[in-house]
Amino acid sequence: MSRKPELRGRAARLARLFPGPSGSGPQAARTPFVLLVVLLLGGGLIGLLVLNSALSEGSFKLDDLQKDTKNLTDEEQALQRDIDSYSAPDALQRRARELGMVPGGDPAFLNPNGTVKGVPSAAAQQSAVQIPLALRPPETITHSPAAAPTPTPAVTPTPTPTTTPGR
Q: Which residues of 1-152 form beta strands (DSSP E)?
Protein backbone atom coordinates (compact mmCIF):
# COMPACT_ATOMS: atom_id res chain seq x y z
CA MET A 1 0.00 0.00 0.00
CA SER A 2 2.71 2.21 -0.49
CA ARG A 3 1.69 4.75 -2.90
CA LYS A 4 3.92 7.13 -4.64
CA PRO A 5 3.52 10.63 -3.58
CA GLU A 6 2.10 12.92 -6.22
CA LEU A 7 4.63 15.30 -7.70
CA ARG A 8 3.92 18.91 -8.30
CA GLY A 9 5.45 21.76 -10.26
CA ARG A 10 8.88 21.30 -11.68
CA ALA A 11 9.28 17.75 -10.47
CA ALA A 12 6.05 16.71 -12.24
CA ARG A 13 7.29 18.13 -15.54
CA LEU A 14 10.62 16.30 -15.22
CA ALA A 15 8.89 13.05 -14.30
CA ARG A 16 6.82 13.22 -17.50
CA LEU A 17 9.97 13.48 -19.61
CA PHE A 18 11.55 10.26 -18.24
CA PRO A 19 9.80 6.91 -18.48
CA GLY A 20 8.78 5.26 -15.29
CA PRO A 21 9.51 1.69 -14.15
CA SER A 22 6.38 0.30 -15.77
CA GLY A 23 7.04 2.46 -18.92
CA SER A 24 5.83 0.14 -21.70
CA GLY A 25 3.86 2.96 -23.33
CA PRO A 26 6.64 5.27 -24.64
CA GLN A 27 8.98 2.32 -25.38
CA ALA A 28 6.45 0.83 -27.83
CA ALA A 29 6.17 4.10 -29.73
CA ARG A 30 9.94 4.28 -30.17
CA THR A 31 10.30 0.92 -32.03
CA PRO A 32 8.37 1.85 -35.22
CA PHE A 33 10.31 5.11 -35.46
CA VAL A 34 13.66 3.30 -35.23
CA LEU A 35 12.53 0.77 -37.86
CA LEU A 36 11.38 3.61 -40.13
CA VAL A 37 14.75 5.39 -39.84
CA VAL A 38 16.68 2.16 -40.51
CA LEU A 39 14.50 1.37 -43.53
CA LEU A 40 14.90 4.90 -44.92
CA LEU A 41 18.69 4.79 -44.52
CA GLY A 42 18.91 1.31 -46.07
CA GLY A 43 16.65 2.31 -48.95
CA GLY A 44 18.70 5.45 -49.52
CA LEU A 45 21.93 3.46 -49.64
CA ILE A 46 20.46 0.91 -52.06
CA GLY A 47 19.09 3.75 -54.20
CA LEU A 48 22.52 5.39 -54.31
CA LEU A 49 24.11 2.08 -55.29
CA VAL A 50 21.63 1.58 -58.15
CA LEU A 51 22.07 5.19 -59.31
CA ASN A 52 25.87 4.87 -59.22
CA SER A 53 25.71 1.64 -61.26
CA ALA A 54 23.42 3.23 -63.85
CA LEU A 55 25.71 6.26 -64.17
CA SER A 56 28.83 4.13 -64.62
CA GLU A 57 27.03 1.98 -67.24
CA GLY A 58 26.02 5.14 -69.07
CA SER A 59 29.61 6.35 -68.87
CA PHE A 60 30.87 3.13 -70.49
CA LYS A 61 28.26 3.41 -73.25
CA LEU A 62 29.22 7.04 -73.83
CA ASP A 63 32.90 6.08 -74.07
CA ASP A 64 32.11 3.34 -76.62
CA LEU A 65 29.97 5.73 -78.68
CA GLN A 66 32.71 8.35 -78.64
CA LYS A 67 35.23 5.76 -79.92
CA ASP A 68 32.80 4.72 -82.67
CA THR A 69 32.24 8.36 -83.61
CA LYS A 70 36.00 8.96 -83.81
CA ASN A 71 36.51 5.88 -86.01
CA LEU A 72 33.64 6.87 -88.31
CA THR A 73 34.94 10.44 -88.52
CA ASP A 74 38.41 9.17 -89.47
CA GLU A 75 36.87 6.91 -92.13
CA GLU A 76 34.77 9.78 -93.49
CA GLN A 77 37.84 12.00 -93.74
CA ALA A 78 39.78 9.27 -95.55
CA LEU A 79 36.93 8.81 -98.03
CA GLN A 80 36.70 12.57 -98.54
CA ARG A 81 40.45 12.68 -99.30
CA ASP A 82 39.94 9.92 -101.87
CA ILE A 83 37.08 11.84 -103.47
CA ASP A 84 39.14 15.02 -103.54
CA SER A 85 42.07 13.24 -105.17
CA TYR A 86 39.82 11.68 -107.83
CA SER A 87 38.02 14.94 -108.58
CA ALA A 88 41.16 17.09 -108.90
CA PRO A 89 41.45 18.61 -112.40
CA ASP A 90 44.75 16.93 -113.25
CA ALA A 91 43.42 13.53 -112.12
CA LEU A 92 40.27 14.00 -114.21
CA GLN A 93 42.34 14.96 -117.26
CA ARG A 94 44.63 11.96 -116.83
CA ARG A 95 41.68 9.55 -116.48
CA ALA A 96 39.96 11.08 -119.50
CA ARG A 97 43.09 10.58 -121.60
CA GLU A 98 43.36 6.97 -120.37
CA LEU A 99 39.80 6.41 -121.56
CA GLY A 100 40.62 7.85 -124.99
CA MET A 101 38.83 11.17 -124.58
CA VAL A 102 40.21 14.26 -126.28
CA PRO A 103 39.74 17.92 -125.39
CA GLY A 104 36.88 19.56 -127.27
CA GLY A 105 37.12 22.79 -129.19
CA ASP A 106 34.93 25.83 -128.89
CA PRO A 107 31.32 24.79 -128.29
CA ALA A 108 28.37 25.66 -130.51
CA PHE A 109 24.95 26.39 -129.02
CA LEU A 110 21.41 26.03 -130.32
CA ASN A 111 19.15 29.00 -129.71
CA PRO A 112 15.49 28.38 -128.83
CA ASN A 113 14.47 29.48 -132.34
CA GLY A 114 16.70 26.79 -133.92
CA THR A 115 19.63 28.92 -135.07
CA VAL A 116 23.18 27.87 -134.27
CA LYS A 117 25.41 30.21 -132.34
CA GLY A 118 29.11 29.49 -132.89
CA VAL A 119 30.85 27.22 -135.37
CA PRO A 120 30.50 23.48 -134.66
CA SER A 121 33.58 21.40 -135.27
CA ALA A 122 34.77 17.90 -134.44
CA ALA A 123 37.21 17.33 -131.62
CA ALA A 124 40.86 17.10 -132.54
CA GLN A 125 42.05 13.58 -133.35
CA GLN A 126 44.61 12.07 -131.05
CA SER A 127 47.51 10.06 -132.40
CA ALA A 128 47.26 6.27 -132.12
CA VAL A 129 50.47 6.12 -130.08
CA GLN A 130 48.90 8.01 -127.17
CA ILE A 131 45.76 5.84 -126.97
CA PRO A 132 46.30 2.47 -125.31
CA LEU A 133 45.30 -0.51 -127.45
CA ALA A 134 42.84 -1.88 -124.93
CA LEU A 135 40.94 1.41 -124.71
CA ARG A 136 40.69 2.15 -128.45
CA PRO A 137 37.29 1.63 -130.05
CA PRO A 138 37.15 -1.56 -132.21
CA GLU A 139 36.78 0.33 -135.52
CA THR A 140 40.14 2.08 -135.07
CA ILE A 141 42.04 -1.18 -134.58
CA THR A 142 43.46 -2.52 -137.85
CA HIS A 143 44.76 -6.02 -138.26
CA SER A 144 47.40 -5.33 -140.87
CA PRO A 145 50.97 -6.30 -139.94
CA ALA A 146 52.26 -2.79 -140.69
CA ALA A 147 49.90 -1.17 -138.18
CA ALA A 148 50.61 -3.66 -135.42
CA PRO A 149 53.24 -2.50 -132.98
CA THR A 150 56.43 -4.49 -133.24
CA PRO A 151 57.55 -6.02 -129.99
CA THR A 152 61.03 -5.11 -128.88
CA PRO A 153 63.26 -8.05 -128.11
CA ALA A 154 63.87 -8.51 -124.44
CA VAL A 155 67.48 -8.46 -123.38
CA THR A 156 68.25 -11.12 -120.82
CA PRO A 157 71.51 -10.87 -118.93
CA THR A 158 73.74 -13.89 -119.29
CA PRO A 159 75.16 -15.22 -116.05
CA THR A 160 78.94 -15.19 -115.78
CA PRO A 161 80.53 -18.41 -114.57
CA THR A 162 82.12 -18.10 -111.19
CA THR A 163 84.87 -20.31 -109.98
CA THR A 164 85.59 -21.15 -106.45
CA PRO A 165 89.25 -21.13 -105.39
CA GLY A 166 90.74 -24.46 -104.50
CA ARG A 167 88.86 -26.62 -107.01
A: 109-110, 116-117
Concatenate the DSSP letters of all residues of 88-114 into one string: SHHHHHHHHHHTT-----S--EE-TTS
pLDDT band at 147 (very low <50, low <70, confident <90, very high): very low
Residues 119-128: tens digit of each pLDDT: 888 777 765 4
Closest CA to 104 of 114, 115, 96, 113: 96
Cα(121)–Cα(105) distance, integer angstroms: 7
Rg (CA), the chain: 50
> How wide is the angle at C-alpha 141 spanned by C-alphas 137 and 144, nearest 5°?
175
What letter does residue 167 receive in the DSSP assignment? -
The model carries a pTM of 0.40
Give the Cα separation of 118 and 109 in Å (integer).
6
pLDDT tens readout for residues 80-91: 999 999 999 999
Q: What angle do CA 109, 114, 116 make, to 5 degrees?
A: 35
